[in-house]
Amino acid sequence: MPNGGDKNWVRACGAIDGFRARYKRWPKRVCVHPMIFRDLVEHVLTPIGFALVSSVVAIEADQSGDPDLTLVAMDDDGLEYDYGRLGFPEEFGEQGAREWFGSAILRDDLGW
User: Fold this and answer.
1) Residues spanned by the domain of 69
2) Element (H, E) at 54
3) What is the pTM of this model?
4) 80, 73 in Cβ contact below 8 A?
5) What element of type H or E holds 30?
6) Buried-exposed string 54-76: b where 16+ CB fall within 10 A, e elsewhere
7) What is the DSSP letter of 81?
8) Which of 23-32, 48-57, 74-83, 89-98 has the lowest mean pLDDT?
9) Is 111 among the domain residues?
10) What is the spatial distance between Cα 22 and Cα 64, in angstroms, rounded to a whole number?
């Protein structure tokens, strides 16, 4: 379990990779708890990094008010991968989302 300043980014990538492992394609979006969304926007991803990630997979704050929702990768066809329930995918042979996006999208001061 990641515990560094980028832990929510690592988990978001786990949701993306879980979706990719299960459905063999990238999700359209990752719906996250509003607190996680704020963390990603204000502390983890640079503004350009957030824009780059969002051009591939939109990161959206959940508006449903579901207290159990943490990170769910989904597409427009109703397919989902719930990281909060399923965790990291057991097997993932491809390059993970974290490596694919690289570290240049992250803020330098993640040690806060």
Assistant:
1) 7-85+93-101
2) helix 47-56
3) 0.89
4) yes
5) strand 29-32
6) eeebebbebeeeeeebbbbbbbe
7) E
8) 89-98
9) no
10) 25
